[in-house]
């Protein structure tokens, strides 16, 4: 840390307008709010065709036959492709485990799996042709939960696993398992004065981005293909696409198109390979755009989870031990499940000091929808459970829940359950103090001289109450999230920075492959370049694969890693520019020989502010360009038996206070306020930081009280694939969201920053649940909370994934080897 309090490594002054620390506006902001921004679904090419996918109508079945004749005979259809038409022997893909077929072969493993693709001259023609494809299925027994996945003689979702996790799991239907053992939890339990157990269920959440999956593939004259796509990681897509097409990577040229949100749902491939296959088969550009129904089947979701916890504590409020078992349902394909398991296990105790832990986390293969990355990535499910436990233990000890958390709060130097020391500020107690100290919203806000304002009441404009039966509750929660890729992954980014004089002015061009998905990276990248090179005019080039990988826009990593790469490249550019200046002007002023020169306001200046030269004069006709990779500190894989290891590069922390009002007669909830305190290390763009915190908070609110993909436990079919039936918070559901930003620099990170976007998604959910429990006195153990859970009308025999008010109609699955049902079906 420098003497003035700036993080060490802040190598350049901030005298140039629009640098780091300022709330500069987004360059795409006006275009987006006026509807002029070009998203991937807006792309157009002359003479283009439209692609369509035929998806399975059943969740687990043998494919007996596929008849494409009627579809091929449809006027306007240019191509129909199935698994047998794929051009190479590489016919599977995956982020880590290549277990996902490009098109289903032999069997389908989940409802909505792609079976065939069609290209036609009109989207309606393509849709109708796909519906004409006849697929005969012979249905197979389903794997839908842990019991059916691991029972003796259980049906195997993937019969012949050879991936590197397969040798470390107790059953082939377990994708990955991570135990963490530290200390002696059994001995510690004997010292506990209070022991509390709990079983929790976390629902399947959808990323629900507003821009559906879309892309445009254009065949090239060289036999390659140009793909314009909305994604989160261009080079990961490229690594999976090129082998399937049988092309070298330099012949699959990818450019990022306008992305309408992501939240993890675009880390996996959707239609990328399908669009390229059809374009190469037909020799014409092919555009594919999912409708909302297809989008629910076209990307992974947040893992639903079953969690069992045991916490012990002494009378003075100190945790003695934590035992837990976390079972995540990964669905039909692996996606990011192994990494989600690692996060869930390593962060399962929360931001607390606990020396003795016994943890097991695992992810299942099942015939449910595939699940993978979503904002919070395994830590969200764990936080919901461990924060409910903390409230229970506090109640058992007669302690205030915030005080109990403060007593056990970790700080810098605390050892994680994995044995890794937290080597940067961990202001957990301070965040709790700050969020508790925020002013409370006034009571009975709905009251006025003119009567009740129903908009401020549970039920809103449905006018269900005028305040009778409405009870207020307050709840607190705090969470811990890792930042960046972990467990030994080579996490790096590449930046190309160019400084030149254009039209008599210095101009910086920054080129990376970072996917701008709405997080504001393009804004921050320009701010970094202005700060480091002292140039106001910065151009951000479109992201593509003509520059090295920037990694994924996920794990709260882009400002850290790609920002770090841009900072590093700018530093090298600055040194070259200063060396150029020394050669040209060094004889004119002795200060050129000093080391403390800066670039500010388009000029070379001394650290005392004396101007030595204009950048334009230093550069003349010469451009200075640098392309560099940058990596954060290395991490380690967790030990497969003990879970010990320095698995994460950085941790982030957020605390929430929720204030709710509940109509206890109808089970309706109005969240009045969700206040957050979060340490961000250094706010490079304070306005964007607050926006990220508020956005993550609202996403956590959604899973607390309304969001859930409902899967029929008998058929494994999705029951609500639409925004009519999958409920999302609107602006009318969004409460006041006060934010208190704490800036305690992490000296290991560029500018001392800390990843921001995910931590608020963790603690907002359990804070809302805690507030509802406070209002109702009910022991709520699942998300989302529905009205029937508050009114006692759900029924004790109701399955947690049944639709609201629905009865569970369970029929036993056929045992292995039993006669299977057979039927023919036209796809949807």
TrEMBL record:
SUPFAM superfamilies: CO dehydrogenase molybdoprotein N-domain-like, Molybdenum cofactor-binding domain
Gene3D superfamilies named in the record: Aldehyde oxidase/xanthine dehydrogenase, a/b hammerhead (3.90.1170.50), Aldehyde oxidase/xanthine dehydrogenase, molybdopterin binding domain (3.30.365.10)
Pfam family, one: MoCoBD_2
Domain Aldehyde oxidase/xanthine dehydrogenase a/b hammerhead as annotated: residue spans: 34-141
Region (Disordered), start-end ranges: 1-25, 780-828
UniProt name for this protein: Molybdopterin-dependent oxidoreductase
């Amino acid at each position: 840390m420098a003497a003035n309090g700036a993080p060490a490594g802040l190598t350049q002054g901030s005298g140039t307008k629009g640098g780091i620390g300022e709330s500069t506006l987004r360059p795409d902001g006006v275009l987006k709010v006026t509807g002029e921004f070009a998203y991937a679904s807006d792309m157009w090419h002359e003479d283009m065709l439209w692609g369509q996918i035929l998806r399975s109508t059943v969740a687990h079945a043998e494919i007996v036959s596929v008849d494409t004749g009627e579809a091929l005979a449809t006027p306007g259809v240019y191509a129909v492709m199935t698994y047998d038409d794929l051009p190479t022997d590489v016919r599977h893909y995956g982020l880590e485990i290549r277990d996902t077929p490009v098109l289903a072969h032999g069997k389908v493993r989940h409802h909505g799996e792609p079976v065939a693709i069609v290209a036609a001259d009109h989207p309606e023609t393509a849709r109708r042709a796909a519906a004409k494809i006849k697929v005969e299925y012979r249905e197979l027994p389903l794997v839908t939960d842990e019991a059916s996945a691991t029972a003796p003689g259980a049906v195997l979702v993937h019969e012949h696993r050879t991936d590197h996790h397969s040798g470390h799991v107790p059953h082939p239907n377990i994708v990955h398992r991570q135990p963490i053992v530290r200390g002696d939890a059994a001995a510690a339990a004997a010292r506990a004065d209070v022991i509390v157990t709990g079983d929790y269920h976390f629902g399947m959440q959808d990323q629900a981005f507003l821009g559906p999956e879309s892309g445009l593939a254009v065949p090239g004259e060289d036999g390659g293909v140009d793909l314009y796509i909305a994604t989160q990681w261009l080079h990961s897509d490229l690594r999976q696409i090129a082998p399937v097409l049988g092309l070298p990577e330099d012949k699959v040229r990818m450019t990022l198109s306008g992305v309408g949100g992501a939240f993890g749902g675009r880390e996996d491939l959707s239609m990328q390979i399908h669009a390229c296959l059809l374009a190469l088969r037909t020799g014409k550009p092919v555009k594919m755009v999912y409708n909302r129904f297809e989008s629910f089947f076209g990307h992974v979701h947040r893992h639903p989870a079953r969690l069992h916890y045991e916490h012990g504590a002494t009378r003075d409020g100190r945790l003695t031990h934590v035992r837990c078992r976390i079972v995540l349902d990964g669905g039909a394909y692996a996606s990011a499940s192994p990494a989600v398991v690692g996060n869930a296990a390593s962060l399962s105790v929360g931001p607390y000091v606990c020396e003795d832990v016994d943890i097991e986390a695992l992810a299942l293969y099942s015939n449910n929808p595939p699940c993978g990355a979503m904002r919070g990535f395994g830590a969200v499910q764990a936080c919901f459970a461990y924060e409910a436990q903390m409230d229970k233990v506090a109640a058992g000890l007669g302690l205030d829940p915030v005080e109990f958390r403060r007593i056990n709060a970790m700080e810098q130097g605390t050892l994680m359950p994995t044995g890794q020391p937290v080597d940067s500020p961990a202001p957990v107690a301070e965040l709790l103090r700050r969020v508790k100290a925020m002013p409370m919203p006034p009571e009975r806000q709905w009251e006025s001289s003119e009567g009740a304002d129903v908009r401020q009441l549970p039920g809103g404009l449905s006018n269900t109450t005028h305040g009778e039966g409405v009870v207020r509750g307050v709840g607190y929660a705090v969470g811990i999230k890792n930042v960046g890729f972990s467990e030994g992954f080579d996490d790096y980014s590449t930046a190309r920075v160019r400084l030149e004089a254009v039209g008599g002015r210095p101009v910086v061009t920054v080129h990376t492959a970072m996917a701008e998905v709405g997080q504001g990276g393009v804004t921050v990248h320009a701010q970094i370049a202005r700060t480091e090179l002292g140039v106001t005019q910065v151009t951000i080039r479109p992201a593509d694969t003509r520059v090295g990988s920037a990694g994924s826009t996920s794990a709260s990593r882009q400002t850290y890693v790609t920002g770090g790469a841009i900072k590093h490249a700018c530093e090298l550019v600055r040194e070259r520019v200063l060396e150029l200046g020394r050669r040209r002007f060094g004889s004119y002023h002795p200060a050129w020989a000093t080391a403390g020169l800066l670039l500010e306001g388009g000029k070379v200046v001394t650290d005392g502010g004396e101007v030595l030269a204009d950048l334009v004069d230093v550069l003349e006709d010469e451009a200075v360009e640098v392309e560099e990779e940058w990596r954060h500190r290395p991490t380690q894989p967790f030990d497969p038996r003990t879970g010990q290891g320095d698995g994460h590069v950085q941790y982030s922390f957020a605390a929430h206070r929720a204030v709710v009002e509940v109509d206890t007669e109808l089970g309706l909830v109005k969240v009045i306020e969700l206040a957050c305190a979060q340490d961000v290390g250094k706010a490079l763009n304070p306005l964007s930081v607050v926006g990220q915190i508020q956005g993550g908070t609202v996403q956590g609110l959604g899973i607390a009280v309304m969001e859930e993909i409902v899967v029929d436990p008998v058929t494994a079919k999705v029951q609500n694939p639409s925004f009519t039936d999958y409920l999302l918070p609107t602006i009318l559901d969004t409460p006041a969201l006060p934010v208190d930003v704490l800036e305690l620099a992490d000296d290991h990170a560029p500018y001392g920053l800390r990843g921001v976007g995910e931590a608020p998604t963790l603690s907002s959910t359990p804070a809302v649940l805690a507030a509802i429990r406070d209002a109702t006195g009910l022991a709520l153990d699942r998300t989302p909370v529905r009205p029937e859970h508050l009114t006692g009308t759900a029924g004790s025999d109701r399955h947690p994934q049944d639709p609201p008010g629905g009865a569970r109609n369970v029929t036993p699955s056929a045992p292995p080897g039993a006669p299977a049902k057979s039927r023919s079906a036209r796809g949807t």
